[in-house]
Amino acid sequence: MSDFRPSHTPLRDEEPRRRPQPGPRRARRARPGEQPAGRVLAIIVAGLALAALINADALVERAERKPLGPDRDRSLAIWHPVQDVSHILQLHRLRDLGDWLVGGEDPPAAKDPTGSPVLQTTTTLPPEEEEEPALELRTPTAEAPLRVLIAGDSIVRDMGESFLRFTADDPLIAPVMHYENATGLTRPDFYDWPTALVQDAEANQPELVILMFGGNDAQAIVAPDGTVHDTIDSPGWRAEYGRRVGGVMDALRTEGRVIVWIGLPPMRSEGFNGRAGVINEVVSAAAAERDWVRFVDTSRVLGDEQGRYVPRLPGVDGELRQGDGIHLARAGADVLARHMQQVVADLLAELAPAPTTTTTVPASTTSTTADDG
Amino acid sequence: MLFPTVTFAVFFVIAMAVSWLLRPTYRVWLWVLTVMSFVFYGWGDARFVWLLAGSIVVNWGLGEAAHRAMDEDGGATARSVLLVRGAVVVNLALLGFFKYYGFFVDSIASTLDAIGLSMSPPVLEIALPVGISFFTFHALSYVIDIGRGDMAPVRLDEFALYMSFFPHLVAGPIVRASELVPQLREPFDPRRVRSAEAFRLITAGLFKKVVISSYLATELVDPVFGAPGAHSQWELLVGVYGYAIQIYADFSGYTDIAIGCALLLGLRFPQNFDAPYRALSLQDFWRRWHITLSRWLRDYLYIPLGGNRGTVRRTYRNLFLTMVIGGLWHGAAWTFVIWGALHGGWLAVERWARERWQATGMASPLPAPASAFLRWAVTFHVVCLGWIFFRADSFGTAMDVISGILSDPGPAPLVTVLVLVTIAASLASQLVPPAAVTRLEDRFAALGPLPQIVAVAGALTVIDVLGPDGVAPFIYFQF
After folding, report:
1. How close B154 gets to chain A, by Cα (Å)?
2. B233-270: b (≥16 Cβ within 10 Å) or e
């Protein structure tokens, strides 16, 4: 290949020199690659219509995932008829063929918004008062580090990344993270978290599960009997969300495992902050009834002394939150991750198994936090 | 409004129909398209529509005033120079406030903290208007060109459409008024729309943006840059290569869609990318990457600083400064400044090395293909080094990535065959000669309408099947 480019390479934008002179329309035929505008428009419209018919199932699915409300109803009203026509003409098979060729697993999704099938089978009543073994958390060693699963929606991502970074050199903690953008517990038909968490738990056998949800959950929720609870403040909404949260806590319960549920931090938008507060109340109430679950209140970790939203904290270099006033920026994620490291250390100290007469407890087993800085 | 959405498709079909129908009545056409562009801009967030409108009116007014202040030969006078400088200050102040206030305050606060003084600056959380960097640069090029006597002012409705035109409003290409307005005025022929090229650009652009870019981002680049310490050296290295492809696919994909949409409306935008990863030197790279930005920086920053007309040292300084400012244009963070400084520094080094080499008069000791490959490899890796800083959320993260690449062995589960094939195929696609693409376009246009309809629907289906479930974020949007 030539290794010397001329100093002036003609760029495409100099093509206009070759364009025909302006003036009265000439009766010329179009050159190759050119068509009349009307024909092009017709091709585009027909092409889009055909594409809509072929992909009608996917379009309906996307519309169904929207928060329940007039926008969703409008979208469904548009796409359902298209889907009907597509099925009559069997055009949806082409899309099915494409999906089959590409393969891959479908993410877990319930068939409707009323709740994950996992929750139907677990009890949502508080566990009965019976003689239970004391809650314990194994003391990790370098050969057998503590297995930690961090899961949630996009808001857990940044904290999880910082946590992974801080514990990368810590041989006693082995975290993995699974997050999914735009998900939560309110819409299992979009992403079925209870099922996904049960699958993750089986795969990773975590001893500590750190969860953070809620940012996408402040939308209409559908109870198993079909009732739609629109407003987050209503008792019906709280009861149904509480059922789902409790269901997740129960589904993940197993010996030697502790769940830490991180509360939503204060939000810049007042309305959203109020809704986040409701979610935090529901979650902390469910956690209070279950001794294997701890709730972490982040309002004073990422907020001021009154627990209100602040964009920066004294002594912290950088902004706490991203431009949307919701997600954590790197500095905020670091702050929360450090706090969580301390929470983990405290839990390991508090729940260390009682020493039996046949084992010796090694000294300083609980200093698991990496050095600061 | 985002490009790869059903809403935009409907909007564009309406815009195209309206545009071709109204084009014979020039003024009505100008206003209607401007209104539609404002609808496009304000669709997601209507707050900044007023900012754009204000910028249009103020800049047009300053352009008019500057032109009137010039003397009869069209030369600059003290007053016209003052007006142009005023326009520059106003535009940069606006951009500075929205984009750089937080950065400025942060940097001062950190510096004061470091020397023991603490300060509580007024904390303002300022939302960034979409596309502000682009329309600010458009406005500046207009006023400065008038001040230099390179163009006469245009009418307000023409200027309004130039500034707000929806294909280039959000993320370029950076079009000059002198390139676009003559096209607006020319009664272009509706029987000769370059549809084949437009279809090719739009479908290729959607594929690059929706499929390639999102795939590499979610499966490789985001995890790697999010927690570099948790990944091994092979993952980090491939992650950097992956980002090089991701940002190219994302940005050139968007630009392709913009150029294709403009073609369908009868207007030709300048080319913005020309197989940048074929470059054999960094100077060549900047003739192939974000071409309209590098031309803008050359014409309005590098040349006014003196370009290469002064001493050698001055040339290096001008190169360096121009690239640092170019870096800062991308974002309010030190990592962007470092990216710019890296490019500026290497351009200077290249220039120095080339002059030394030519002064010796020696031929290359290596055979030509080997020499070309070596130069390609060095250039590509310098560019990738720059991308590490561009992508990282802090200097520390960038250094983590670099040190990890040098010293962190381990398994690499993220580096799958598909990831490697995607990166390799994307690089290889830069070698396709433009002439072959044009031949393909011509053959496509020769097909009847029905095969074209099927092809359009097929392409959209393939893109939707291979793309992610949601709409992936678009990198250059926040500029």
Report:
1. 19
2. bbbbbbbbbbbbbbbbbbbbbbbbbbbbbbbbbbbbbb
The phi, psi pair for B23, rounded to 5°, reads -55, -35
Question: In terms of Cα–Cα distance, which of B12, B149, B178 is closest to B70?
Answer: B149
Give dist(CA A8, CA A26) in Å, integer: 34
Query: Is the Cβ pair A99, B127 closer than 8 Å?
Result: no
- Cβ pair B266:A55 closer than 8 A: no
- What is the C-alpha to C-alpha distance for residues B255 and B262, in angstroms, rounded to an integer? 11
Instruction: Give the tokens for residue B306.
Output: 């003196």
User: Which residue in A168, A143, A172 sits closest to A337, CA to CA?
Assistant: A168
Q: How far apart are CA B46 and CA B291, in angstroms?
A: 30
> Which residues 81-140 in chain A show a CB within 8 A of chain B?
94-95, 98-99, 102, 107
* The pLDDT of residue A224 is above 70: yes
Closest CA to A292 of A262, A261, A259: A259
Sequence-distant (6+) residues with CB within 8 A of B16 are: A37, A41, A44, B264, B265
pLDDT average, residue stretch A42-54: 95
- Per-residue pLDDT at B189: 85
**SS3 (DSSP) at A129:** coil
The answer to whether B76 touches B70, Cβ cutoff 8 Å, is: yes
**CA A66 – CA A37 distance, rounded (Å):** 36
Q: What is the pTM of this model?
A: 0.84
**Rounded to an integer, what distance in angstroms lies between the CA atom of residue A176 and that of residue A172?**
13
Q: Is the Cβ–Cβ distance between A183 and A67 less than 8 Å?
A: no
Task: Count A/B contacts: CB-CB distance under 8 Å.
Answer: 172
Say how far apart CA B457 and CA A55 lie, in whole Å: 9
Bridging pattern class, strands A208-212 and A146-152: parallel
Q: Which residue has the tokens 């585009």?
A: A44
Extract the tokens encoding A232. Answer: 């987050």
User: Quick one: pLDDT band at residue A311, thresholds 50, 70, 90?
Assistant: confident
What residues 47-86 of chain A have any CB closer than 8 A to a CB of chain B?
47-48, 50-51, 54-55, 58-59
Token pair 């003290």: residue: B78
Q: Write the ipTM.
A: 0.88
Q: And the tokens for B46?
A: 């209507």
User: Cβ separation of A94 and B461 shorter than 8 Å?
Assistant: yes
Summarised one tens digit per residue, pLDDT across range B82-101 is 999 999 999 999 988 888 87
| Helix boundaries (H) for B309-467 | 312-330, 334-360, 368-391, 395-407, 417-428, 434-446, 449-466
- Measured distance CA(B219)–CA(B209) in Å, rounded: 15
CB B402 within 8 A of CB B239: no
The helix (H) or strand (E) run that includes residue A151 is strand A146-152
**Measured between alpha carbons, how far is A261 from A347 in angstroms, rounded to an integer?**
13
